[in-house]
Design brief:
Number of helices: 12
Number of strands: 20
Structural class: alpha/beta
Helix content: 25-40%
Low-confidence stretches: none
Oligomer: single chain
Bound molecules: flavin-adenine dinucleotide
Strand order of the largest sheet: 1-18-14-17-16-15-6-8-7
Mean pLDDT: 96
Strand content: 25-35%
Shape: globular
Length: about 425
């Protein structure tokens, strides 16, 4: 099956654990906390609250994990693009230091949650190779890696043949290897959190798109087409799929696209050479090439895209070219499935925690670092509602600030993928590969 015949289907739907029972909201529900958006952030928040005995309802306009969480590459990439020092400068000393501490344990915390809640999600913690595509990117990555290693992260530099031995890719001569990285079946992880939250009493609703949120008689009331939920507190975890339920929120980030595909299963010999030991890889391109195995030995490969499907021939060609660049050994390998999803990218590539009104929180904008960092945010959101002081959270609470010219920039998103690809090629040409 060649790429053009590959099925346009989200691969994870076919290998996920069963979906927890949900119902469409009809009538009126009254709870302490309403979580709007059932991706990893919402599900981890609902789990933290239900675990503490809080009455929670969680709604999703489609279903648990329908958004980025069920489409994701599922790679747990446990550091930010900023050095610890830059985090302190950006967030202030108190939040910066808390975020550094939280980041250093983010991957281990995720995998220990998976064990603690017995989530069946094909979790593998075999490391992450973060590769540099140019010499300049290599220098930047080296600075980043040294800074995080000095803070306590288990990171080593690889160069020359060591990069190829660790990744199976001949495309790079410099990389960082993060021991704490790994990968999960992202839809199973999302469903697992939701199932555990439901077992602890959370009410789950699918096909329930909240269209409005208003203050009525001292409580928040959210309305869908067939029902309404009253709650003391509301948490918005709608990320790149945010609508106008809270004014201005969807304008705080750009909903970029990532395209992704699954190959046919690789042979045992290929699996010994390519991403040996089931390590994951991603690189420093703007278009970000990333890859990992699924549980059946299919290679999952993704990069930036231009629309919500991979029907556009340019998108499929970009994926194929990317795969051939990183793993030329696999040129021409049949593609089994392809799909796309939205990534909420903030200007500084860090998520935002908002509290736009008393009793309303939002955690949005993971900028492609969602697998590890939605857990950090979900814990922070539930901790805040359980009484943790705002100063002790890893993220400062920031105002909702719409990006200038958001409408115009949004319309240009289909051009982002080709533009990034051209810039990456230009950089490689003038700077040489790492
Ligand atoms: C193709 C792709 C590959 C990726 N790969 C990686 C990766 O390898 N590693 C990594 O760290 N990150 C990756 N990411 C990013 C990561 O998946 C996301 O950051 C993360 O899943 C975001 O989770 P979330 O819960 O915040 O949002 P989502 O999972 O997007 O959930 C938001 C939910 O809100 C719902 N919703 C929106 N509005 C409403 C409303 N009004 N009422 C009710 N429900 C509503 C939507 O239906 C949606 O299900 C990838 C993303 C994509 C798209």
């Amino acid at each position: 099956m060649e790429g053009k015949d590959a099925k346009e289907e989200i691969h994870w739907v076919f290998t996920a654990s069963t979906a927890p029972k949900c119902a469409k909201l009809e009538g009126t529900v009254d709870v302490d906390v309403l979580v709007i958006g059932a991706g990893l952030t919402g599900c981890r928040t609902a789990l933290g609250l239900a675990d503490a005995g809080v009455s929670v309802a969680m709604v999703d306009s489609k279903g648990i994990g329908w958004g980025a969480s069920g489409r994701s590459g599922g790679q747990c990439n446990p550091i930010w693009r900023q050095t610890p020092q830059e985090l302190v400068e950006r967030l202030g000393e108190r939040h910066g230091e808390t975020l550094i501490k939280t980041t250093l344990t983010a991957a281990d915390d995720l995998f220990s949650d998976i064990r603690k809640y017995d989530v069946d999600c094909d979790a593998v913690q075999a490391g992450w190779v973060q590769a540099a595509h140019t010499r300049r990117a290599a220098r930047n990555l080296s600075t980043l890696g040294k800074a995080w290693a000095a803070a306590g992260a288990d990171i080593v530099e690889l160069d020359g043949g060591a990069v190829r031995a660790a990744s199976g890719s001949p495309a790079y001569s410099f990389a960082l290897r993060h021991a704490a990285g790994g990968h999960v079946q992202p839809l199973s992880l999302t469903r697992g959190y939701a199932r555990t939250a439901a077992a602890k009493g959370a009410q789950l609703f699918n096909d329930t798109r909240m269209a409005s949120l208003e203050r009525v008689s001292g409580k928040w009331r959210a309305r869908s087409d067939k029902g309404e939920i009253s709650a003391e507190n509301v948490v918005l975890t709608t990320n790149a799929y945010t609508n106008d339920v809270w004014r201005g929120l969807r304008k705080t980030f750009l909903p970029l696209v990532s395209n992704i595909m699954a190959t046919v299963p690789l042979s045992d010999t290929q699996q010994q050479e390519i991403l040996p030991g089931k390590v994951t890889i991603s690189d420093s391109r703007l278009a970000i090439y990333y890859s990992r195995y699924d549980r059946d030995g299919r290679l999952i490969f993704g990069c930036v895209g231009s629309s919500d499907t991979v029907k556009n021939p340019g998108d499929l060609a970009r994926l194929r070219r990317g795969l051939k660049t990183v793993f030329p050994q696999l040129a021409g390998i049949p593609i089994f499935r392809k799909w796309a999803g939205r990534i909420a990218v903030t200007p500084e590539m860090m998520p935002h925690l908002h509290e736009p009104a008393p009793g309303v929180l939002a955690g949005i904008g993971f900028s492609g670092r969602g697998i590890a960092m939605t857990s950090v945010m979900g814990r922070a959101l539930s901790a805040k509602l359980l009484g943790t002081c705002a100063d002790d959270l890893p993220f400062p609470i920031v105002p909702i600030t719409p990006l200038p010219f958001h409408g115009l920039t949004r319309r240009l998103i289909p051009l982002v993928a080709p533009a990034m690809t051209i810039k990456d090629r230009f950089d490689t040409l003038i700077d040489g590969t790492s």
